[in-house]
Amino acid sequence: MVESTLFIGAVIVALTQVVKYLAPNINGAVTILVAAVVGVLVGLTDGLIGVTDVSVAQGLMIALAAVGTITTAQSFGSKTPPKEV
């Protein structure tokens, strides 16, 4: 279960970053929606994609954790140094 959780979280982070790259004007609600949809889809198709024992609720919780990771990383990465005068 641990390996699949890490894999699913990484896929969700990658997909949300691709969406943000393609449409930089989207807000946090769209990011959460994309992550939630991917998490639910993973829970529904877990046997078909090679990930076992992931329920829909677990997929959704992994998605929300991935969104938290994205938000935290962006808050640290978005700080720009002050301009020199």
Write up this protein.
The chain has one domain. Helices cover 71% and strands 0% of the residues. The protein has three helices and no strands. It has helices at 2-22, 28-44, 56-77. The chain is elongated and about 60 Å long.
Beta-strand residue fraction: under 5%
Number of individual domains: 1
Helix/sheet category: mainly alpha
Q: What is the typical, i.e. mean, pLDDT?
A: 79
Estimated radius of gyration: 15 Å
Poorly predicted runs of 5 or more residues: none
**Main sheet characteristics:** none
How many DSSP H or I helices?
Answer: 3
Number of strands: 0
**SSE ordering:** HHH
Percentage of residues assigned to helices: over 70%
* Beginning-to-end CA distance, first to last residue: 53 Å
Shape: elongated
